[in-house]
Amino acid sequence: MVTAADRPRLDAPLPDRATRLRAFLYRHRLFVAALALAFLLRVVTMLGYGPAQWFNDSYEYVSGAVNPDRPSALRPNGYSFLLLLLRPLHSFGLVVFVQHLLGLGVAVLIYSLLRVRFGLPGWGATLAALPVLFDAYQIQLEHLIMSDAMFMLLVVGVITLVLWHRRMSWRLGAVIGLLLALTALTRSIGLPILVLVVIYLMVKRTAWKTIAAMVVACALPVTGYMAWFASAHGNFAMTNSDGAILYMRTALFADCRKMDIDPREELELALLCISAPPGQRGFSGQKYLWWAQNGQRFHAFGVGSTFTPETNKTAGAFAQRAILSQPLDYLSLVAGDFFRAFHWGRPRFPDFNTYRQYEFLPETKVLPAWSSYRGSTDTDALKYDPGLRTAPIQGKMRVIGTDVSDPWAAFMQGYQRVVRLPGIVLGVLLLIGLAGVAARWRKLGGPVLLPWLASFGLILAPAATAEFDYRYLLPAVPLACLAAAISLRHGFSRPATATPAAVTPGDAVPVEPVDATTGPIMIGPVAPPAPDAPDLAGPGPATPSSGTASAPTTRSAG
Length: 558
Known about the structure:
This protein is mostly helical. About 50% of the residues lie in helices and about 5% in strands. The protein is built from 23 helices and eight strands. The strands form three sheets. Strands 2, 3, 6 and 7 form a four-stranded antiparallel beta sheet that branches. It has a two-stranded antiparallel sheet with strand order 1-8. A hairpin with a 2-residue loop joins strand 4 and strand 5 (about 375). Helix 5 (about 90-115) packs parallel to helix 8 (about 150-165), helix 20 (about 425-440) packs across helix 21 and helix 21 packs antiparallel against helix 22 (about 475-485). The protein starts with a strand and ends in a 49-residue tail after the last strand. Residues about 495-558 have low confidence and may be disordered.
């Protein structure tokens, strides 16, 4: 028992570092346990699939890191910059280890934001982070040589910084702008996120200096990259593929008769017309971009001209003409791909080979010998990581990109069949977030609006500009979890602490035992929170006037 009449000892030694660490881990023990288990799953993945897994886009990224003197015409080089930074270590195993840490970092950001800024209890904040920690497809995506783990951390990092600070200085705005620039250079969809953040800050009536600093800090690196791109490809842009990919989006329904294309006056557009009737073109437009078929496809301009400024411009003009001429067909296709994201299962889309690249397979991966900027895809990978194994296959030495090792690989194959986030659950999370936005309509959605719009946009944008792909869904998941958790936080909060009765000097005041939410008890004066820091512990006990003994004050850790 501690009596209120006891005077606090100001010379009492502070707890040592180990004691403070144990207290911190105890307060957050539920999340720490989940984080440790998620880390263990990633170690098992690395043991089962070494050194990394590969997707068709992986080779372009590796080429950008091996040949850093020229930007890619197909996609921004942000992820290639990360590979270049790690290249001196010559290990794809290290690359995927860093990406697994990035994925765990996303979970830490979610937990910290919900726990500290919005006052959720430990179990509620941990629950919101579970999809990022344990979804098998999230773990598999981190294990691919792909930009998605980096992009996901950048997006969630930007949203976290914006929501964490009630007031933003221009310096913080500049930091967020730099992060947004890196996000855009990793995937082009990062630029629309800048627009969302600017609108959100304007709704919050943030100082114009902060918004201006953010926009300028984002614009400078992006403009510099576009100037570098122009020096290599001749046009001031970030890629030469946006028009081509939009052409792929419209290839399933574009009808040149409805578009009123005159071959005598618009020959370049007419060359892109598809002869097969729309009803016979299948359910994916990728073949009309990536594979030359029957001479009447995107490759009609010749081999090697796929992603040039001229072809990209022509393809973009064709796609815009198709959308304006057949708006209902376009909207129907976009809606179909958007709602494809919310299936309970995982239909095989856009084709079986692409679908398989998101699976933990019991197969060794032999890297293809496709042509690249200065060599071939397999030699680029071997140049980056000389430790890759080679083996004679059909009389030729081939590079092995992924070695499968059991029982670790078999465990992850079984794990993936059971532990995943169904699309319908993602839809429910979005509906909860939408309800949270509607409930805060007087504040234009409040803090729920930004993560909800970002999540919704990350699902809608590929459906509108490219085509549905399972990996495009995963960056939207943590943002949907944030929006849903913030919407429900009032249901999670504890009742306000009751004001204690007056204490007579000399009376004994019992001290409550430490639990997961309160942390260690501090006896004596407690420094008030900083002016900008939210007091998330709820109203504390009444402060007696000078000269009156007070009961010990217990503060929540979050």
